[in-house]
Amino acid sequence: FHHYYHLHNSLLWKAYKQGSRTKEEVRNLRFRLALHDLGIPNSYLSDQLADYYIEHTKQVKDLVPGAMEVLTQLSERYPLHIITNGFDEVQFFKINNSGIGHFFQTVTTAESAGVLKPDPIIFQTALQSAGSKAEESLYIGDSPEADGHGALDVGMEFIWFNYTGEENTYSFKHTVDSLPALLPLLNGA
After folding, report:
1. What is the pLDDT of residues 120-179, one digit of tens each?
2. Could you state, in order of their start, the residue ranges of all structural domains in the chain?
3. Kind and range of the H or E run holding 50
4. 2-59 belongs to which homologous superfamily?
5. Which of 66, 58, 129, 59 shows the shortest CA–CA distance to 87?
6. For the chain, what is the mean pLDDT?
7. Residue 72's closest CA among 164, 188, 189, 182?
8. In terms of CATH architecture, what is 67-187?
9. 97 burial class (0-12, 13-18, 19+ CB within 10 angstroms)?
């Protein structure tokens, strides 16, 4: 099941980012198509899985190693903000349930901006909400395309958080493989 789910989830998110699928289609079709590939064409079951997944995901409290310590240190020196392509009903719960909500002054979602990263509009919306200028801002993200190119296209500096160890075929100025590795880069900033 996991193989088919991840395959369809990836393809549907790609289509969503390109504007050819809706949020609801991503939310429901990833399960329906995975079950169909396994010979279980059951829309009731796929809808139940989708609902369970959203509710379970909201409750996840797992953080990347070092997240709390790094956010604590960074929030003492810098105003922190979030830009996310995640769905509103999940993202706000995840941020608050994981205990990191108080670190961030603003959260800009694709739904609130009306576009997905890397569209410059979501970054400009976030900068406006934060009262910041692109040239005075730094974006840390894990997606070279959505985060890296999006941030750089509006004039922000970018640090790629390559926690998966993906082969680095990009020319980003800075790349880190762990959150604590950010601190030496930002201590001189």
Report:
1. 999 999 999 999 999 999 999 999 999 999 999 999 999 999 999 998 899 999 999 999
2. 2-59, 67-187
3. helix 43-59
4. Putative phosphatase; domain 2 (1.10.150.240)
5. 58
6. 93
7. 182
8. 3-Layer(aba) Sandwich (3.40)
9. middle
